[in-house]
Design a protein that fits this description.
- The protein is of the alpha/beta class and 231 residues long.
- It has helices at residues 24-29, 35-42, 58-65, 77-80, 117-129, 199-208, and strands at residues 10-12, 48-52, 69-74, 87-90, 102-107, 131-140, 152-155, 161-171, 174-182, 187-194, 211-216, 223-228.
- Helix content is 21%, strand content 34%.
- Helix 2 (35-42) packs across helix 3 (58-65).
Length: 231
């Protein structure tokens, strides 16, 4: 069954496109970044991790190699078919309820910037719902300049170009963002809605759902370790 596209999201290029406009074939090509190192440095060895929005498992596989136990969640069955050796759960993250808790809950890929504030609240509630006592939530935020000085691009050492073409306000503090990924043999685009959040707005959004910042894990403030306020 083909999933309905989320409002304001779309994607083009070869292969299946997920409800938020991501191309499965594209994400299968993208290399893993420094995310596994950031996670490994912030959590106990061998921790049980719930990865929300795992995609094709780029980070999942690296975490497994480091000895973590990972439950990988995504709403796209096509994405999950690429995940190896991890337990996988298919469904919208904001409605997830596994009736179990984890040492670490990961919310990466800027999901906390969902354009729909109710979706963002649902995502954060899912994090809290699955957080074990003494556990933490690792969240990836947009960089401070993500929506400024556009268009901009970078050429990856692997030989492809990532271009953020535009970020246009569409009302209620939400932007419509268009990205392009250009490979020698194929091009993919993604259009999605994002809500820029200042550090104060971000921390207020966490507090609304019972979370607080424990510390910012990277100098640019993109990766954050949060904990439950009442634990």
């Amino acid at each position: 069954m083909r999933l309905k596209m989320r409002e304001g999201h779309q994607g083009t290029g070869p292969g299946p496109i997920t409800p938020d406009g991501c191309a499965v074939e594209l994400y299968s090509r993208l290399p893993v970044g420094d995310e596994p190192d950031i996670v490994a440095a912030a959590v106990p060895e061998g921790a049980r991790i719930l990865e929300l929005g795992c995609g094709v498992g780029r980070v999942t596989h690296s975490l497994l190699e480091r000895g973590f136990t990972v439950t990988a969640v995504d709403e796209s069955p096509e994405m999950l078919r690429r995940v190896r050796q991890a337990r996988t759960i298919c469904g919208p993250i904001e409605h997830l309820d596994l009736a179990e808790t984890f040492d670490v809950v990961m919310l990466a890929s800027f999901l906390v910037h969902a354009g729909d504030a109710e979706v963002r609240r649902g995502l954060l509630r899912a994090c809290v719902r699955h957080l074990a006592d003494g556990g933490c939530v690792l969240i990836q935020r947009e960089g401070a300049d993500y929506h400024r000085d556009l268009p901009r691009e970078r050429v990856d050492p692997a030989g492809f170009t990532v271009r953020i073409v535009s970020s246009d306000p569409v009302g209620d503090g939400v932007h419509s963002v268009r990205a392009e990924y250009v490979f020698p043999d194929a091009t993919w685009t993604q259009t999605f809605r994002a809500r820029p959040l200042s550090r104060q707005q971000f921390e207020e959004a966490l507090a609304e759902e019972g979370l607080r910042v424990d510390r910012y894990l990277t100098e640019d403030g993109v990766w954050v370790k949060a904990v439950a306020m009442n634990r």
